What does this fold into?
Amino acid sequence: MDTATATVASKRASDILDQVRSIFALNGFDGTSMQDLAQAAQMSVGNFYRYFPSKDALVTALVKRELMEIEAVFGAVQTADDPGAMLMKLLRCRIETLPFEEAALWSEVQAASYRCPEIATLIRTVDETVRSNVVTALIRIHKDDSADAMTVYEARAHLMMLLIHGYTQRKYCTRDAVKPDQFVAFGELVLSTLHDSIFTPPAKPAE
It folds into this structure.
């Protein structure tokens, strides 16, 4: 286990990540100081630096932990008797229960990736992990791994990721500008499209 992974896995470091998430979400990456983060974690700045020497290191740890959680979630999908139902259940939970704080946090992480190469590399790893696992799930659901089907699965995986990312961004950007019932309707539309992307059999190429 490398140092960064060990840091994410440590109980105290994990507790710190939980405690500072809301500060990043509320103030943004640039608007949050190490003093703010240390205060949120209820520790001195000097002690905080022992765990995370910079904000980039903290964001990197957040993304690494997210990657570990994604791998665990898709592990459940890949081993489920009904992978389609399991995947749809997880997506519905994500859409229906996504808190504003988390939407704001991942918008900030995405922004941080544009200026920090290490974070950008991790974000690409997260995207690739999700994409490959979605494709693997679609193969199990449709029991078709032909070249034509794989092309369809790849396109659908990208569409599904776009829908989830877009929903997260809209929830953050619109804040109180959209009424709750309107956002529920938007979520149902996203879920309907995700359902079709998962369960519609891959179309055979035209003769």
Summary: The mean pLDDT is 87. The two ends are 52 Å apart (CA to CA). The domain at 57-199 is CATH 1.10.357.10 (Tetracycline Repressor; domain 2). The CA atoms of residues 38 and 45 lie 5 Å apart.
